[in-house]
Each structure stands twice: as C-alpha cells, then as structure tokens.
Amino acid sequence: MTSQTQDWRSRAKAKKQQQLDSIPKEWILRNPPSKDQLNVTDIPRTCGLLSSREIEITESHVEAILSNLAKGIWSAVEVTTAFSKRAVIAHQLVNCLTEIFIERGFARAAELDDYFKRTGKVVGPLHGLPISLKDQLCVKGLDATMGYVAWIDKPSEKNSVLVDTLESLGAVFYVKTNIPQTLMFPETYNHIFGRTVNPANRALTSGGSSGGEGALVALRGSPLGVGSDIGGSIRIPAGLNGLYGMRPSYHRTPYAGNVNSLEGLNSVYSVLGPLTTSLETVKTFMSSVISKEPWQYDPLVIRKKWNEDEYRLCDHNGGKQLCFAILWDDGMVRPHPPVLRALETARDALTRAGHKVIDWDPAGLAEVNNVASKLWGSVGKQDSLAVTSLSGEHLITTMRPEVEDLENLFELPSRYKALNLTAFEFWQVNVLQRQLRQEYLDRWRETANVTGTGRPVDAIIAPVAPYAAMPHGQHRNAVYTTVWNILDYPAIAIPVTTVDPILDVKRERSSFYNEDDRTNWEYYGPEKFKDAPVGIQVVGRTLQEEALIGMTEIVDRSLKTYQPKL
Amino acid sequence: MTSQTQDWRSRAKAKKQQQLDSIPKEWILRNPPSKDQLNVTDIPRTCGLLSSREIEITESHVEAILSNLAKGIWSAVEVTTAFSKRAVIAHQLVNCLTEIFIERGFARAAELDDYFKRTGKVVGPLHGLPISLKDQLCVKGLDATMGYVAWIDKPSEKNSVLVDTLESLGAVFYVKTNIPQTLMFPETYNHIFGRTVNPANRALTSGGSSGGEGALVALRGSPLGVGSDIGGSIRIPAGLNGLYGMRPSYHRTPYAGNVNSLEGLNSVYSVLGPLTTSLETVKTFMSSVISKEPWQYDPLVIRKKWNEDEYRLCDHNGGKQLCFAILWDDGMVRPHPPVLRALETARDALTRAGHKVIDWDPAGLAEVNNVASKLWGSVGKQDSLAVTSLSGEHLITTMRPEVEDLENLFELPSRYKALNLTAFEFWQVNVLQRQLRQEYLDRWRETANVTGTGRPVDAIIAPVAPYAAMPHGQHRNAVYTTVWNILDYPAIAIPVTTVDPILDVKRERSSFYNEDDRTNWEYYGPEKFKDAPVGIQVVGRTLQEEALIGMTEIVDRSLKTYQPKL
Lengths: 566, 566
Known about the structure:
Two copies of one chain form a homodimer. Chain A is α/β, with parallel strands linked by helices. The first copy, chain A, has helices at about 5-20, 45, 50-60, 60-70, 75-95, 100-120, 160-170, 210-220, 235-240, 280-290, 310, 335-350, 365-375, 380-390, 425-445, 450, 480-485, 515-525, 545-560; strands spanning about 95-100, 130-135, 170-175, 190, 195, 195-200, 200-205, 225-230, 245, 270-275, 325, 355-360, 460-465, 490-500, 535-540. Chain A has an eleven-stranded mixed sheet. The interface of A and B includes residues 302, 445 and 543 of A. Chains A, B: Pfam families: Amidase. Chains A, B: GO terms for molecular function: amidase activity.
C-alpha cells in the first residue's frame, strides 16, 4: 500500500468520524438491533428516543405537516427536532446520511417560528418543512463530496438554485444523503460514507443513486427528499423503498449550482425531483418550485408556468375513461413474479375503476437502451477518473461487497464499456438518440388508432426494475427506468405491494431472451426478497408533468380502492 | 482534372440547367438589366411581366393577403401565380432559388380555391398563402441538396414536420431558396446553384445562410419565407435586405425531418423562423405554427402553448415605460457608421416614445463567441467532408469570388478552425457554454438594480452585423448574431434605414481593439455600401418569443413614428 493510498483512506475515515461526531450523544441508540435483524422499519418508533408527538409528526404526510405548521399547531423547531432525531436514528440503522447539520436546521426553524409569531404568516408554502438533500446538492458552507475523497473539505461557496428556491419557499435543511461514487449505479456505496441498506431488509440494497434518500424517507427520517435521476436514480430507490418518486422532464426543475457526474453530456440530462410518502407531496414540490420561476436563475430551465388545467387533465378527457398501456416486459429481461403481480394489480384496479388497459409493445426499447450504454461509456469515465486521481482512491466499478474494496479493479459492467469516442462519433450517438425519440413519439401518437378513446394512450405503466430490492451488488439492470430518461418522458414511481412468498411463487419458463434473462429468472426465489416493497412507474410524455401527476393520482387512487389494506 | 471531379461539375451543371428549364418561357425577362445595374429592386414592377393586380398582390403584407383570400377577393391561384411569377423574375435578377415547383403550387392553390368555393371557409389561418422554403426544408418528392452535388436526385421521402404544419395551416409551396454549401457562412454560394446577390446592390452579398430567402422576400417574390439560424442565418439576410426575421429559442418551432449540417451537435441548435416584410407576420407565423402543437410531431419541441398574455407584455408593465439596453459595440469589432446611426435612431425613437434606454455592457461576449468557434470547429467539418467526398466536389471554405472555385483550398477562417476534439474535450466546451449562459442570465437579472423600472432590462437592442451588406466574400463577422444563439436568446431583426453617404461619414478613430477592428474601420467608405439596408436586432430572454414580439412591435412602432418617411 503506497502512502498516497494510505492517505486517501485516512482522509475518508476522518471524514466519516467527523460525521459520527456530529450526532448528539443523547440520540445514539442504546440497544441497536443485531446485524441479523434485517427489517428495521419499526425501530424508530420502538427505540424509545421519540416521543409520541414526535412519532405523530414524523409519520404524517407533508400536507398534514404543512397545515399544522401554518396553523401554529406545530412549531418549525419541534418538527425539525422530530425529523432530525428520526434521521439520526435511521442513519444508525441503514447508514443513509452524508452531511449532518441539524444545528443549522434548528437555527433556521427558530427564525421561521419567530417570523410566524411576529406576523402570523408563513414565509411560503413549504414553511417549516424539513427537506433532506441528496449529497450532490450544494448548500453554502457544507461539503458536497459526492463520495469522492478528493472533494472532502471543499465546502460549497453558495447554495444551488434549487436549494435557494426551496429555502425561499420555507424549507428547513438538516441532512444530506448518501450516494454511490460516480452516481452511476443503482445502489449506494462509496469509500467515505460506506453502504446504505434497505430498511425493510438490510441484506438488500436501498437502490441508487439516491439510495440514501430512499432509505431515509422510508424510515420517515425525512418527509420529503430531493434526488437526481439520469437513469432511474430517483425512481429506483423510491420503488425499492415503497415511496413516491418523480423524474421530471429535462429542465423543468433547476439543476444549476450542484455538483454532478458526466458534466457536459448534453444528450441526456440528470434531473432533480422528489422522493416522498404521498403523491400530493410530489405535486406540492413540483408546483411550488416552478412557482418561483426557476428560469430566472438557471439558464437551462424551461420558461413554462405550472398549469393547473393540465393537472386537471384538460387534454385527457378530464380523467374519465383513460387508456393506460402496460409494459409487462421489455423483451430483454422479464420481471420477477412480484413485479408482474404489481402490474396485474394495477391493471385490475384500473379496469375496475372504469379505465381501459392495453398492452404496451416493447419494440424499440432495446435500441433506446443501447444509446444509453453508448452515452454513459462515450468518454470512458474520464470525468470520474479525473477526480479519483486527485486523491489516489480507486474508481469503484462494482457494488458487489466482496470486491468493492479491491483497488484498481476495472471490471466495468457491460452497460458501461469505455468507448472513448471522438466528438464526431459522439455526435452520431446524439443523432441516433434523436431518431429513436422521433420513432417513439410517432409510435405513441399512433396508438390513437387502437385505444378506442380517440386519443393516444394516456400514460404507460411499467416496472421500476425487473425485481424488487436485490441483495447488495446484484442490482445491475436499470433498463426499465433508463429508457424513459433517454426519451425524456417524465415518470413517477408509486408503491403497489411487497413481496409475498405465497403469491409470488416462481413462474416456470422454458425459453429466455438471452443469458441475462435466464440468470435473472434462475436467481428468483421469494425468500431472498423478504419484506421488499414493489413499485411501478407511470410514464407520461415530454414536459407533461402536470398531466402525469394527475393521471398517476388516478392510478394510485384506483390501487388504494382496489386493495384498501395497503 | 480527374474524371471524378469532371463528373461532379457536370452533375452540378445538369441540375442547374434542370432548374432553368423549369421556368415558364413566357416569364423570362426580355430585357434583363446589364451586369452594371446594381440596384434591381424596381425591376419586378417595371419589367412588364406583372399586371398591376399582380403588383398589388405581391406588394401587400401577409395580413392583407390573408384577409383578401379569406374574403374571396383574391383567389389562391391568382395569389400563387403572382408570387410565382415574381419569384422567377427575382431569380433572374439575384439568383435566389433552388427548387422551382410552381406547377405543384398551382395544383395546391386550385384545391384550396375549390375548398373555399364549396364550403365558404378557409382551411386554416394561412389559407392560400405562398410560402418560400430554405433549401434544407424537406418537401416530399423534391430534392433538398443543400448545395451538395452528392445530394442531387435524392428527393425527400416525406415532408418535414414544419412543412406539414404550414400545409395544414393552408400554405402553398412553390419555390425553395439558395444557401451556402455547409450552411455555415453568412453569405450564399454553392457549386450547384451559384451565388445569390443583394437586390439593393448586386455587388453586395444578400447574407446567409438563408440568403436566398433574404433576396427573394426583399424583391417580394415571396411574402413569407422560412429560414434557419444557428449563428445568424435568418437575422443576417433579414438585416441585409431590409426585412423582419426572427430567430426563436431552441425547440420552439419544429426542426424534425429537414436536412442540416452539424447533426448531433446538441449544444447550440439551428432553429427555423420567418423572414418577411412585417412584424405582424412574424407573430402570425409563430402563433399559428405553435397552435398546431408541434410537440406532437417533433420530440424536441417544447410543450408550451402560445401565450397572448405574454405577448401583451404582462411581465413587462404592459409595454409602458420599458427599459431597453443598447449594445453599441461588442468590444471586438466596432460597427460601421450606418449601423451606429441605426442604433442612435432607435435610441432617440424609443426615448421620444417614453421608454428608457441604457447602454448594454459587452462584457462576456468575447468568451461566448469563443465557445461558438470551438463548437463549430469541434469535429473539423467531418460531417461536411463526409458528404463532399461522395461526389468529389471540394469543400467550400471561403465565399470570396476570386478563390471560391479553387479546389481543395483549405483556407479555413479562424472562426472555423478544425479542432477534432475527443468527446470528453467536447463536453468541456459544453460545460463552458452552460457556465457562460449562467453568467449572462445573472448579469441580465441583476440589471434590475440600474434600470429604475423595478425590472431587469426588458430587451437588448444590438447590431445585426458590424456593417451593412458587404461586397461578396467580405462578410466574415457573425459575432453580433452568434452570441445570442449560444446563449439561446430569441432575437428579431428589423429594418431601420439604408446607408446614406451624407449621414454616414467615416468616423475618426485613433485606437482599435485588434487587427480585425482596424481592418474593418479602414475598409469603410459609404460608397461601397450604396443603397444597402441597415437593420438592428431586438433580443429577449430564452423562450420569451411572445414578449419579444410584443416589445419589438414597440421598437418598430417608435421608429416608424419617429421617422415616418420609412
């Protein structure tokens, strides 16, 4: 081991220690669960650290919290305290946080309470609401390491546009959340903060790259988190943790001023969106952020006001007798039984509610996914290597626990082949992407011939992934989410069910699309996925955020009516 | 000379001959002006080929034409005949056309007349309006060579989205217009169709790359032309021909289905927009195209309806007491006296009309222009060379008449240096572009501190170019237009005046920014620019098409009130 590598390891360790030291002593779990206890979802409410009022606060949806804050029933300080405590408890269970800055949260909350006391008014629609932020979101004075050792002790000089926007709406910030190094994995592990695990089963991944958010919000350590998504990084952790998570279209929410990977890739853009416990909150987040005219602060944001008529489905028959199309299977890797059951449940619920449900043809998706592979691989990770080379830490190329710490392991998964294209070759990938977007747009529009509604399919329903949360290092397929990023279709993950060994028996198959498909089928056994949540995606057309939320509410409501116990 | 090069020359010649053959014999000018006659603007009305009614039709603005068509006062066939005739006359004077397909135009016009006769109704808001199309716009069954010999006899398989859209609105197509090979020049010359010249002075350029449109519309051979603009290609020919021309923001109008250069350059996008004789027509074009929801047909078009409130300047004090900022000089090349006088006239007219006028600081524009040079040069013309190599014709690298036909002359102007970047290097240019867009957005927003209106500057007024129309081969500077493309600000060129040897005397200067600036100053003499029109640009913020048209109307009206003789 060279001195340089010793150095990065000790810097990572010191940073982690600093994080642990920032936790108030009195919030340390006295009886932490044993490593063998996989499901830790009940511990926050049973560990004895939270009062019953704190449990009530943290288990409320955002709308109730905002309403109680606006009425003065709850103070911002007590709401912030409750979530700070619960976030720290969650962190001890699933290792979901990066920066912990609850003192700043308290100070901000106290200011808001003071303002409310003086004026009787809220500062904005998110007055007093604690919001957790994925590590890459820049908050003045705090690190945004993104899991890179080289970026330790480089505090952000100012807030990013979204952070400023949320603050101006009344938000309180108190924690940032864990990510995989490079952000380009659907799981969450890096050399500084380690691995985030799934609260429903700690042997399983919490997903990624917004895996810290997924685990934290699932444990109600935050009522609303901000994640980013370039290939599923919001929807995968939302789906794998039983949450709601939205990927808006490119440039609907402001990205400026945050750190990121793949900077300068102007073909598919990472976007910021919410992970939360209700669909209403997804709308609150989107409409309130857009109400602040983020195009005044981020040159890439589209000047397009929030449109309540579109939300009320003025272009979709007012929400009556919609036609949904289900993508059962992408023709590359067939989903596991719990995922198929979630889709079947959605079909039955929507049909019962009077909507039409047809099948969505997977044609073209393989080509779309190929474009993703080419785009991710086009510069061969030169951007990430430029950062890791500064500290000497190695580039992480797998999330598998047994090999993650091997240095200089260049086992690049196939979706991430280093292509090292020229600019001209790269442009040809862009041309192909545009062509596929054109073909898909035409395909969708032409469904008007088969829906029987006079309109094209209103929304597509698809798996979030071909499986529920996988054991660590096994979640390698992000195709079901990535294709919509390449096409720039907004998509919302919503929870449907959890893996049920009785219902989700292995389904026999005799033929397979390819080796990945066979391996995935062979791998399945319900016992591996014990307690894992299962979500689905509802997918709309580009820049249809308002209508997509409206249609997803219909899906969500139909599901809740159909299976009222959930 | 090899047989291959002989071959491309004969193919080019045959195509040109085919074009000439498509002109009805009875529309050939019996007494064409001598080469020495530079100003040919009066010839269409004096040559004897047009009836007085045809003169009346072709010298009407679009609104009057549409109104007379809708009332049945003029038939579509007679309007199409008048413009077809005048287009062919114009072509004989300034060589502005590529494809001439007036028979198709007549057939379409007859159909429209028939529909009108049967129903008493128009098919749409552009019912019966002849519209000319820049060569790169694809019309089913017609070539779109873009000046490349290799693309001769490769008719388009279908209409592009914009062509379909305009057709559905009622347009009649009859001619396509000339462009420079590669489209990446602000003048117009290629090996097939030759050079387009300026109707006001045939020794001067008509601009480019939509130079055929500029010359045709200036001669009233078309009431409305569609051009494209990635660095000024609509605004330069509009400005140099005394017309109105708009560059909308990226993805506000549909581009899909046309041929283009730099395909896959996802950093700065070429956009389609109108060249015409009134500002009202700019609005008619934009609002009617957007009314057809082009996002249903082109995946890149932004889902954003036309907003009349924004046009009525709801975000700009209803149009009262606006604050305009004038960019007098970009700090790189100071404009010639006629251009400065045009800006002074605008300042005085706006001040007289009760608006505030301040100076716009050119800081940052040099960096923005550097990004343009890097983007244009990033793949070293590999895309164009791939096309020229198919036929053996050489890549045109200068518009200078004395050298344009030298083969394999690789005198690349400095703005076009072949960089042959890697994808990763190219991404860094994108990062720089985004950073400059951020800085410029912040700069503009912060002008709220100095305008005294409580708002940031409402619009910027800038030169179209540092000179009026230049002698052929001399128009090399496109910085005044290109910077807004890189920043993605919509901009409208409007006419202000013409070069006046008495008013536009050379202004003494003792110091210069650089050699280009000195050369440009030395070059000036009003006699070189005899009769040349001078326009200015009005520049708005990204996706502010509606408000920009509204504000430009204020500028235009103020100018017309201030100098009523124009």
